[in-house]
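Final report, Chapter 2: Outcomes

The project's central promise was a pipeline that accepts a single protein chain and returns its three-dimensional structure in a standardized token representation, suitable for archiving and comparison. That pipeline is now operational. To close this chapter, we reproduce one record exactly as it appears in the project archive, with the input sequence first and the structure output second.
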Amino acid sequence: MASKDSQNQNPRSLPGFLPRATNPDQNSQEASSNPRKQARQQPGVSQPSSFLPTATLPPGLEYLSQLDLIIIHQQVELLGMILGTETSNKYEIKNSLGQRIYFAVEESICFNRNVCSTLRACTLRITDNSGREVITVNRPLRCNSCWCPCYLQELEIQAPPGTIVGYVAQKWGPFQPKFTIQNANKEDILKIIGPCTTCGCFGDVDFEVKTVDEKVTIGKISKYWSGFVNDVFTNADNFGIHVPADLDVTLKAAMIGACFLFDFMFFEHSLAGL
């Protein structure tokens, strides 16, 4: 049973959220001038309340401030399927209507992809529909083992490119995957806790997004089950990020990076080994 303090804790008062506006007239005017479709309710996921001012957003991330569902679709690489080799990953980032808002391309060395495989160092460049790079995700070569508590996985998030806004860092845990989302000063802002098993056989795999004290769940990152054929014979994965719409866009950008990291760590397999 949750403690009384955890039940009374309001996630809107936590770091990364914009406080609600105190002027009801202003709220009604904004609602009438900016209508939006009501978000689909998700069990255990906080719902949106307000938007961040555009002036405070990194350039190119304005649209993220309106989203409480971000879909990430990995493209099928036919060349990799035919030759049985690892090719650079490509991802489409979409809104809840399936409209593409960003496109991500992996930059890595062929030798690293085929020798280091899922541990490879790489850079993912995320561009908007006009081709402008808005987010850069840097992944160094690091360990990936529950028996090794040091030098674990880490991502650096830049938005815009050249400006560090956060990190995704793996935390040691023998039973469950654990990660933290950090700000530019490497201060913990949110935690991500995965299930004990990530095989995802015939079902979705959910990573819960929690507050630092792990008492409040504010969202989740889901790896959607795409069917037996896709899971076995391709590397194409689909993810959904369910978060409050008023969450800081830099944290949303970090969660997009976290999806890429989860794909590499838990769901990407070598086609050459089939």
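Archive annotation: Residues 113 and 266 are 16 Å apart (CA to CA).
This record, like all others produced under the grant, will remain available to the consortium after the project formally closes.
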